[in-house]
Amino acid sequence: KYDEQNKSFDYEKLPICPALNDFAFYSFVYLYDFIFLFGGKNIITYERTKLVYTYSMKDKTWNQCKITLPMEIYASFAILSNDDTSFHVIGGLNANYGKQKTHVSANVEELFEKSELLKMTKMYGKMIKLRNKITKMKLERPYIIPIEKERTNEDKKENKE
Fold first, then answer.
1. Among residues 27, 56, 141, 155, which is most buried (max CB within 10 A)?
2. Are 73 and 39 in contact (CB under 8 A)?
3. What is the pLDDT of residues 74-94, one digit of tens each?
4. Sheet harboring 27-31: ordered strands across?
């Protein structure tokens, strides 16, 4: 975590996922105090995987997710959508060491167990509702900076003259 007021960076060393002990080149996303690892490659045996693992920051535990990627992939890039409802795994290399041309996208809910989703609904429900309300307000009432508005009016006057 970065503390802007004190300009200090605080971090904690995480335990390595036992199943991925010799793996590298996986992609990851962070969401709701969980880290998700997608794919990867064993640096000793060169085995590639299509498994997805999750780390709970609260419980400090690693688990294998119920979903898997549709293909073995490593050296890819993972990102969340703006509204945190879906994840995308892009690029990387496939099982034949060729460029991965398939873009994997799925709903974030698929990453979680039902019990985790129920806990998160209670914990993050208010925060998500607030964020959705703010997004809706931005779409309904776009804000124009008054200086820019005045400048635009001045430009129109100059064009008429």
1. 27
2. yes
3. 999 999 998 888 899 999 988
4. 27-31, 34-38, 51-56, 61-68
